[in-house]
């Protein structure tokens, strides 16, 4: 049914990405799509938008653009108008200054994208490059790790991790459990309210689609079936015994430099001397600062 519904979009260069996005998000009714191949068609669209659609005043009109004055997530949270959303998706270079002015004149709100920007071909084909910026490493120097996320390995895990990145959930989060030869673990926010907000679990993915828990793969931590939330393992070894326990990798990091993450606290309490996860979950930064040497995540960003 979905493919028949999309027949009218097949003449557009965007149809491939629209169909893939709908399939990934479980949407069966396509959004209305207007393709604007040049400036003249853009101006016609802006002139006719209100008059051609009697309900256009109910639209929240968003203009994503690199370097926009406010983040897209913040902009959407601040609207609260209900009704419909209209997004003007521009070329990869962004909109020109003149085009932005035309949109502003029509009541469109310019927003920035930053790390929330995902190239359309990456979203459709299910492979996304990331960089993880770390501070407070073993050497004391900042460290940037690069990696690749693979949707074909773990569709639910891949989508969920990208959602957490776009929400800036991991900013300033510590890598609190580091066991050489096994794993490094992160995923508890310094603000307990944020940890609580994102505690909803996701469904498991079928095992066997990826390489398993090989060295430097990324996988959500799990406590049983369908319990994955925000915590991540970076595998420091080939931990293939995790494959049968619901740990489904969704990507990997590129470099041995991952082992620069501070490991002096070791296993967490009560089995070890490291941070207690329950205390971090409920007390947040108040408790985390008792372990000042923990490596922190400055940001995780999608690489355009």
Automatic annotation (TrEMBL):
<dbReference type="InterPro" id="IPR046886">
    <property type="entry name" value="RsmE_MTase_dom"/>
</dbReference>
<feature type="domain" description="PPIase cyclophilin-type">
    <location>
        <begin position="154"/>
        <end position="253"/>
    </location>
</feature>
<dbReference type="Pfam" id="PF04452">
    <property type="entry name" value="Methyltrans_RNA"/>
</dbReference>
<dbReference type="InterPro" id="IPR029000">
    <property type="entry name" value="Cyclophilin-like_dom_sf"/>
</dbReference>
<protein>
    <recommendedName>
        <fullName>PPIase cyclophilin-type domain-containing protein</fullName>
    </recommendedName>
</protein>
<dbReference type="Pfam" id="PF00160">
    <property type="entry name" value="Pro_isomerase"/>
</dbReference>
<dbReference type="InterPro" id="IPR002130">
    <property type="entry name" value="Cyclophilin-type_PPIase_dom"/>
</dbReference>
<dbReference type="InterPro" id="IPR029026">
    <property type="entry name" value="tRNA_m1G_MTases_N"/>
</dbReference>
<dbReference type="InterPro" id="IPR044666">
    <property type="entry name" value="Cyclophilin_A-like"/>
</dbReference>
<dbReference type="GO" id="GO:0071013">
    <property type="term" value="C:catalytic step 2 spliceosome"/>
</dbReference>
<keyword id="KW-0539">Nucleus</keyword>
<dbReference type="GO" id="GO:0003755">
    <property type="term" value="F:peptidyl-prolyl cis-trans isomerase activity"/>
</dbReference>
<dbReference type="InterPro" id="IPR029028">
    <property type="entry name" value="Alpha/beta_knot_MTases"/>
</dbReference>
């Amino acid at each position: 049914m979905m493919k028949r519904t999309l027949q009218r979009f097949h003449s557009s260069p965007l149809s491939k990405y629209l169909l893939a996005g709908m399939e990934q998000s479980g949407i069966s009714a396509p959004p209305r799509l207007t393709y604007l191949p040049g400036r003249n068609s853009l101006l016609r669209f802006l002139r006719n938008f209100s008059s051609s659609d009697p309900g256009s005043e109910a639209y929240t009109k968003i203009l994503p653009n690199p370097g926009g004055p406010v983040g897209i997530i913040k902009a959407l949270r601040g609207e609260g108008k209900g009704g419909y959303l209209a997004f003007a998706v521009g070329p990869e270079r962004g909109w020109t200054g003149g085009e932005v002015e035309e949109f502003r004149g029509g009541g469109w709100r310019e927003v920035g994208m930053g790390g929330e920007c995902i190239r359309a071909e990456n979203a459709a084909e299910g492979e996304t490059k990331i960089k993880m910026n770390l501070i407070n490493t073993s050497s004391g120097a900042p460290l940037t790790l690069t990696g690749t996320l693979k949707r074909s390995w773990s569709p639910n895990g891949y989508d969920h991790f990208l959602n957490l990145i776009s929400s800036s959930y991991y900013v300033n989060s510590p890598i609190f459990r580091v066991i050489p030869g096994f794993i490094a673990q992160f995923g508890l926010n310094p603000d307990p309210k944020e940890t609580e907000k994102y505690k909803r679990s996701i469904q498991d993915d079928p095992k066997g689609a990826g390489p398993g828990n090989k060295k430097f793969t990324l996988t959500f931590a799990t406590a049983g079936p369908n319990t994955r939330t925000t915590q991540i393992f970076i595998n420091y070894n080939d931990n293939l015994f995790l494959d049968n326990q619901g740990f489904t990798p969704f990507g990997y990091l590129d470099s041995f430099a991952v082992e620069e993450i501070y490991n002096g606290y070791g296993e967490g309490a009560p089995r070890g001397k490291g941070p207690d996860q329950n205390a971090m979950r409920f007390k947040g930064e108040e408790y985390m600062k008792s372990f000042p040497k923990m490596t922190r995540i400055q940001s995780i960003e999608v690489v355009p």
